[in-house]
Amino acid sequence: MAAPASPFLDPRAAARPQTTMSTGQYLDIASPAPTPPAIVPEPRTESNRFLGVQFECCGVYSRIYMNRARDAYVGHCPRCAQRVQFQIGHGGTDSRFFTVG
Known about the structure:
Elements: E1 50-55, E2 60-66, E3 72-76, E4 83-87, E5 97-100
Parallel strand pairs: 1-5
Antiparallel strand pairs: 1-2, 2-3, 3-4
């Protein structure tokens, strides 16, 4: 005789002892949830110093990166090579994404 497809249909399943998912672990739904740890932003590394630029001339998006002198973000449109440069300095903006023509 073939075994039943599901233990719910097996009459012998009622005789088996019920076990938890693993020994000593129970789901506690009466206690409040623990407070998650505070998220501390990581300092910017060299690999993520970029600006996102939408080039309207060709309808493409690209990242541009900081130059070696670290005084500007420099890049170009990946299709038509239109050059863009964003100076770094006091009185600037905190924006990380831009649209250029």
